[in-house]
Amino acid sequence: MAVIGWIGLGHMGGPMAAHLVEAGHEVVGFDVDPGMAERAAATGVQVVQDAAAAVRDADAVFTSLPRSEHSREVLIGGPDERIGLFAIVRPDALVLDTSTVDVDTSRACHDAAASRGIRFVDAPVSGGIAGAHAGSLTFMLGGEQDATGEAAALVEPMAGHVFIVGGPTSGIAAKLANNLMLFITLQASSEGARLAEALGLDPTVFHDIATVSSGDSWPLRTWYPVPGVVPTSPANRNFDATFTTRLAEKDLSYALEAGDAAGLDLAAGRLAMERFTRLIDEGYGDLDCSLVVKYVGRDGRTPGFDPDATG
User: What is the model's pLDDT at position 79?
Assistant: First the structure.
């Protein structure tokens, strides 16, 4: 079993690290949020006081961080590379970033790691908080062949599916393209659900029809934006977040940047971004991204959402 350093023990990283503990690994972790660190400690993670202490003696290091700038700062060290984790980890360590970052950040991390002889894998995940708890995440691994092969075995306790996608940055490329499709199909599910309601259809019956027909999608089955139809829908809980609008906007912005760099016209993605931006501007950035359904109704209302009950 390996000694694993884990940086970022939040809603995703905490349960992911717990699965590695359950698999018999020694996991040494750090998080800037004392509450998250305390939760992780209750699952068997050995919590330490700083990131350097978590990774110094590790065979493998995982990071699970909110944004590109956090991955750059933690791994590379910002302007002073002497304080980044790449300057601290053992030369034979394997480093995996499970964060969703932009392609340029992923490439910079690969380059910085390679300059020090460190094996690095971009290892983003799909499946959300529920998948992190269930150990059913999809891992998309990008990097050199020996590194991704070792990473694939290491992530098994956290995973339902593991894909070795290709070379450096290919994992994050797959994640961004996947999330672009997720957020576009979320718009489709929202519009279809509200149209079915407006035409007098029973929401459960319509949902059951769509899930075995050509309108099927992951958001339809998991986030159906009408209360009382799907147990996992945020609409059952006044759109309390399983995936916040801020995170959705962040992930989609990286996908659109990649599309611009590739010379693509991602028109549906831009529509989804406009809806997420509106939610954030209205103060709903910390609610679930499926609240975009409220813009389908011209009055800005939707079943299951009481704006006075938020906060």
Answer: 65
Distance CA 183, CA 189 (A): 10
Secondary structure of residue 226 in the 3-state scheme: coil
Evaluate whether 107 touches 99 at the Cβ level (below 8 Å): no
Per DSSP, the residues of 67-106 read SHHHHIIIII-TT-GGGSGGGTS-TT-EEEE-S---HHHH
pLDDT in tens, 132-189: 999 999 999 999 999 999 999 999 999 999 999 999 999 999 999 999 999 999 999 9
User: Closest Cα to residue 41, out of 60, 21, 24, 61?
Assistant: 21
Bridge-based pairing state of the strands 46-47 and 26-30? parallel
**CA 117 from centre of chain:** 28
252 neighbors 273 (Cβ within 8 angstroms): yes
For residue 169, how many other CB atoms are within 10 A of its CB? Answer: 23
Q: Which two tokens stand for residue 145?
A: 């062949």
The SS3 of residue 252 is: helix
Which residue type sits at 16?
Answer: M
Place of tokens 């992190």: 132
**Whether 142 contacts 172, CB under 8 Å:** yes
**What is the phi/psi pair of residue 246, to 5°?**
-60, -45
Long-range contacts from 204-213, C-beta under 8 angstroms, 24+ separation: 204/228, 204/229
Catalytic site residue from 39, 72, 119, 175: 175
175 is catalytic: yes
Please tell me the pTM assigned to this model. Answer: 0.93
- The ranges of the chain with pLDDT < 50 are none
pLDDT computed for residue 1 by the predictor: 80
User: Dihedral (C-alpha) 205, 244, 107, 45: value to the nearest 10 degrees?
Assistant: -100
Q: What are the residues whose beta carbons fall under 8 Å from the beta carbon of 150, sequence distance 6 or more? A: 94, 119
